[in-house]
C-alpha cells in the first residue's frame, strides 16, 4: 500500500532541498524540462528531461538547480507498507532511469499533481493508485533492461511520423512502411518501448494539443475537436476527460483572457 505525503511541481531556477539526516519517506522524481542536480550520500547525479529518480527513505541527500538553467520536475513523497510491494521500493540503493515511456508517465504525473492539488472526493485513493502504476512501470523497465538500439531507433522514427500526422488516422501499416518492417512488428515494438499502443499515443498527442488550444486560443470545443481529427465531439470529450481527468469545458473556463 502506498501512502502519499506530498506531491509537487517544481519549476524555475531557485529550488533547493536538503535532507541531512535522511527523510522518513521515499521520494520519486521525474524531470519534464531542463536539468537539475542531486547529491545522494555524496554521489553527484545529474537529472535531465525523461529521467526518473527513486530515493529510498532515510538516505542522506540534497538537490538544487543548476545556475541559470531552468527546470521542471514532479516530486512525490510517499511511504509504503511493510508488506512486499515492489523490489525497487525495498532496495536501499537509489535508482536513476531514463524512461522510454516518457509521454505515458508524464501524463500520469500530470494527473497525479492535479488530483493532489484539487483534492476532490477520494483523491488519496486516486493518487495512491497512480503512484503504484508509475512505480510498476519503472520497476518493469529496470527489470527488463533497455530495448535494443534498433528497437529504440525504429520507435523514434515512428514517433516522428506520428508527430507529423497525429491529426490524421495513423495505422500500423503506415508505420511499418516508415521502418521497413511488418505491421505487427511495428505495433509490438512501439508498445514495448513506449508502453502505449499506437492509437493511445496518437490520442495523447491530440489531447496535449487540445489542452494548449483550449487554454490559449479562442477556438470552440467543436472547432478543436474537428481540427484534431475527431468527427464526433462527444467522442473527443470522452477521450479528453479520460486523458486529463477534466472535461474540455473546464479548460475554457480557465483559459487566458485576451488583452485588447
UniProtKB/TrEMBL annotation:
<dbReference type="InterPro" id="IPR018060">
    <property type="entry name" value="HTH_AraC"/>
</dbReference>
<keyword id="KW-0805">Transcription regulation</keyword>
<protein>
    <submittedName>
        <fullName>AraC family transcriptional regulator</fullName>
    </submittedName>
</protein>
<dbReference type="Pfam" id="PF02311">
    <property type="entry name" value="AraC_binding"/>
</dbReference>
<dbReference type="Pfam" id="PF12833">
    <property type="entry name" value="HTH_18"/>
</dbReference>
<dbReference type="InterPro" id="IPR037923">
    <property type="entry name" value="HTH-like"/>
</dbReference>
<feature type="domain" description="HTH araC/xylS-type">
    <location>
        <begin position="156"/>
        <end position="254"/>
    </location>
</feature>
<dbReference type="InterPro" id="IPR003313">
    <property type="entry name" value="AraC-bd"/>
</dbReference>
<keyword id="KW-0804">Transcription</keyword>
<dbReference type="InterPro" id="IPR014710">
    <property type="entry name" value="RmlC-like_jellyroll"/>
</dbReference>
<dbReference type="InterPro" id="IPR009057">
    <property type="entry name" value="Homeodomain-like_sf"/>
</dbReference>
<dbReference type="InterPro" id="IPR018062">
    <property type="entry name" value="HTH_AraC-typ_CS"/>
</dbReference>
<keyword id="KW-0238">DNA-binding</keyword>
Amino acid at each position: 500500500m502506498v501512502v502519499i505525503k506530498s506531491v509537487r511541481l517544481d519549476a524555475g531556477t531557485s529550488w533547493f532541498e536538503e535532507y541531512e539526516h535522511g527523510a522518513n519517506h521515499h521520494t520519486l522524481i521525474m524531470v519534464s524540462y531542463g536539468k537539475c542536480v542531486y547529491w545522494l550520500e555524496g554521489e553527484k547525479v545529474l537529472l535531465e528531461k525523461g529521467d526518473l529518480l527513486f530515493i529510498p527513505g532515510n538516505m542522506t541527500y540534497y538537490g538544487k538547480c543548476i545556475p541559470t538553467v531552468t527546470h521542471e520536475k514532479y516530486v512525490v513523497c510517499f511511504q509504503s507498507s511493510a508488506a512486499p510491494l515492489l523490489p525497487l521500493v525495498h532496495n536501499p540503493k537509489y535508482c536513476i532511469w531514463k524512461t522510454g515511456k516518457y509521454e505515458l508517465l508524464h501524463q500520469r504525473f500530470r494527473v497525479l499533481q492535479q488530483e493532489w492539488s484539487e483534492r476532490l472526493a477520494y483523491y488519496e485513493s486516486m493518487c495512491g493508485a497512480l503512484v503504484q502504476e508509475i512505480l510498476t512501470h519503472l520497476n518493469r523497465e529496470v527489470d527488463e533492461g533497455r530495448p535494443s538500439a534498433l528497437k529504440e531507433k525504429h520507435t523514434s522514427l515512428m514517433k516522428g511520423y506520428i508527430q507529423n500526422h497525429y491529426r490524421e488516422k495513423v495505422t500500423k501499416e503506415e508505420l511499418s512502411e516508415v521502418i521497413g518492417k511488418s505491421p505487427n512488428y511495428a505495433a509490438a515494438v512501439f508498445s514495448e518501448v513506449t508502453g502505449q499502443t499506437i492509437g493511445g499515443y496518437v490520442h495523447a498527442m491530440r489531447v496535449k494539443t487540445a489542452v494548449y488550444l483550449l487554454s490559449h486560443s479562442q477556438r470552440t470545443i467543436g472547432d478543436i475537436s474537428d481540427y484534431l481529427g475527431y468527427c464526433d465531439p462527444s467522442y473527443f470529450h470522452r477521450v479528453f476527460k479520460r486523458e486529463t481527468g477534466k472535461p474540455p469545458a473546464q479548460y475554457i473556463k480557465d483559459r487566458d483572457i485576451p488583452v485588447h
